[in-house]
Amino acid sequence: MDKTARMRELIPVLREASRAYYQESREIMTNEQYDRLYDELVRLEKETGTVLAGSPTAFVGYEVVSALPREAHETPALSLDKTKDTAALADFLGDHEGLLSWKLDGLTIVLTYEGGVLQKAVTRGNGEIGEVVTGNARTFVNLPARIPYTGKLILRGEAVIRYSDFERLNAELDDEDAKYKNPRNLCSGSVRQLDASVTAARSVNLVAFALIDAPGVDFEDSMEKQLEFLDAQGFETVERIRVNRETAADAVKQFSERILHYDIPSDGLVLTLDELSYGASLGRTAKFPRNAIAFKWQDEMAETTLRNIEWSASRTGLINPVAVFDPVELEGTSVSRASVHNISIVEELALGIGDTVRVYKANMIIPQIAENLTKSGTAPVPDTCPVCGAPTEVHENNGVKTLHCTNPDCPARQIKRFDLFASRNALKIDGLSESTMEKLIDRGFIRTLPDLFRLQRHKAEITEMEGFGEKSFENLTAAVDRARNTTLTRLITGLGIPEIGTAGARLLARRFKTIGALRSSSLEDLTAIDGIGEKMAVGIRAFFTDDKKMEELDALLTELTVEEEQAEETVSSAIAGKTFVITGAVHHFENRDALKAFIEERGGHAAGSVSKNTDYLINNDVNSTSSKNKKARELGIPILSEEDFLKLAEDTSGDA
User: For domain 70-295, is the CATH number 3.30.470.30?
Assistant: First the structure.
C-alpha cells in the first residue's frame, strides 16, 4: 500500500481511540495496539516527510477568529470557458495532449506552503480577492500539515465534502428542517466558519488540481509531472486521464459512466493542456485562461406529454408550479415531475395540458423542461390556494411573476406547527418528516392537527405520491396509531402554546392533571406555579380562549387517549434549582433532549445559552475551545462531563 494512503488510514483510527480514552473513559484498543499504530504513523511521516492535518503527532487545537480577512491572490484564480460538445474538446487539443479530470463541485482554495508548513489558505472569492481561511484549512481531513518540499509552494485545490460524509452528517440530525441541502453549500459554509472546530466536524477534504508555483523544481514542462509532484508531497490530487484529440471522447465516456456513483460532487470535467509553455503562450481573455476548458455533461433528453400542472404552496406563501408528465427514463431513473419555478417560466414555455415537452436532468440530477414543442399556452393560473382555498395574488418583481396565497393562516405556512406536534418531544409520530408533511399539506390532506389521524381517508392518493407506496403508507399510519395514546405533557408540548416548551408543559401537566382543568385555569392559577411567569400565563390564556384553536382541540381530543398526569415523588437533589446548558454530543442519554428531561424531572432547568445565571455547562469535551466553553470559562462557570454531571445528580444531600 502507498505510504501516504496508509497514513490516511491510521489517523482516524488513532484519533478515535484517543477520543474514546480521554473523553469517554473507555478503551477501543489496548495501549500496546495504540502505541504500535502511533509508532507506525511516526515512521511513515519521517519516511515521506509529510504530516497530514489532524495527525495525532501534530494536532494542537482549533483556531477561532472574529472575522475572515480578505486578501488579493498573487495570480488571479479565473473561471473556465465551457462546452457540452466532445468535438469541441478535440478541436481545443489540436495536435497537443491534455489531462482530462473531474470538475469538482465544492469551494476553490489557494494554498501557500513555506518551509514545508502551510502558511496561508485563501478562498477563490471573485478570482482577484478571497477570504483567508488558514485555520480552517488546517482541519481538512486529508490536507498535509507538513511536506518534504521546503520552498514556497502555491497550489489550487477544491475543498469538498463527499456524498458519504454528507449523508452521515444529515443522518445525525433529527430536525428535518436543519438537514443540509447539498454537499456544495455545506462545504462552502463549513470552510468559511469563524470557529475552526466547526469546520473540523464536517469532514472537509482538499483535492488539489493545479500547481501555481514551486521554485527550483523541474517539471519537464508537464502539468502531469506537477500533479505527480503534489502526489509525492502527500496531497490528494484530482483523478485524471491523459488524452489526445482521438481519445478525448472515449475518456469523457469513461467519466460519464462513473458520475452517478462517484463519491465526490462533480458537475462536469476539465481539459487542461499538458504542455505548460504552450498553454502559457496562449494567454487569457478577460475572464478565462486559454490553456483549459470545462466540459459540462450533455443532457439526456426525452419527449413526453404534459398531463398536469400542480401548484404547490410553501411556508412563505409562495405557490410554485410543478409540471407532471408521462414517466420517461433519464440518466437511469424514471422521471415524471419537474419544477417550473414561477408563472413567468410557465408563460415563457407556453405550457398547456397535453403539450409535447422535452425534459432533461440538469447536471444529470435535477429534472427540468427544456422546451415545449406544441406551445398551446392554455395552462391556467389558479385564483385560489390549493391548500386553504384563499384567494391568490400575482406579484411581479424585476420582471418575474410569482403566485402567492393571501391567507396568513394557510396550513402551508403553518408547517412548523405540524412539525412540532409530530416531533419527538410531543406526539412522536415516527417517520413523519417535515418533507413528508409538506407533501401532505400541499395536496390538501392535512389542514388541521386532527387530519394527521385521518390519513386513511386519502390512502389511494398518498400511495400514488412520489416516494410513497403501500409499505411506506402502512409504516406511517402505524406510527400515527401509536401516537394516539399519549401523555398530557406531550400533548401540551405539541399544541404550540406561545412560550411553552417541554419544561413548561411538564409544569402545567403536573399542576392540572387534565387538559380540561388546564383549559379552564385562570391567570391566578397559572402564575401561582413556580416557573410560569405572567407573560407565559397570558399566552396560555390567550391560546385557550381562541375559539378556532379550541374547535381544533376538541376535534383532536376525539382522536387521542390522553393519560392523566401522575404526581411524581419529589427527589431532593443537587440538580434542583440549578440551571444547566448542554453542548456537544452526549453518550449516556439517547440525545440532548433526554438529558434535558432528566434535569427537569429533578427540579433543574435546562437553558439554551451560557449566561451569568448558568450554574453548570455540560460538555463531554471539557477542554473544547467552543464558544460555549469559552464563555463559561470567562464567567467562572464549571464545565462538567456527563460522568461529572451524573455524580452530581446522584448527590441527594442537596449540597452542590
Answer: yes
